[in-house]
Input
Amino acid sequence: MSIREPGCEDTLELELPRPAAYPAPVGAVGAWGPAATAGGRFRLLPVEPRRDLALLAGWMNDPVVDRWWSLAGTQERTAAHLGAQLAGDGRSVPCLGLLDGRPMSYWEVYRADLDPLARYYSAAPHDIGLHLLIGTARDRGRGLGAELLRAVSALVLRHHPRCARIVAEPDVRNAASVAAFRAAGFRKAAEAELPDKRAAIMLRDR
Output
């Protein structure tokens, strides 16, 4: 499946905010360009709700995804999750991950130091956080998550010279996710009791 132009899909008509230009604090993620990985050519594409909502809602209703994201349900529920970011000041940018042009993952690139997460660890100015889900079953369980995390981490550090480290907070029970972050160069710095989970605070230093 490749990305199509907005307006080509039959999707639920919802009042959704349009993606902003993301001037700051995260920046223009869509302009970061592609990265070569062992799995193919990868790039981040900021979410366009009218184009991407049906796809993302389908992923959220996959039981493997819902176990950790808890967003199964209607397209309206997915739209509300996206809208909270798209209507903000650019401190969290929802993105599709495209591998050789095929959408296969969902990412949130966010300023961890400006996020509620900062209350639960020793946040430093310009920390960048990552959330990741692999949307397609064909891409799970073969080490691709770690490969993509390495690629996106490199993009973040290249385009954010003031960022000294990248932060993640997977559920401590999600062994596959924790292992992927470790394989991508993250270290477990602590555990934290967040409102919705006990998280492993994973850090990757510049």
Q: What stands out?
A: The longest helix spans residues 144-159.
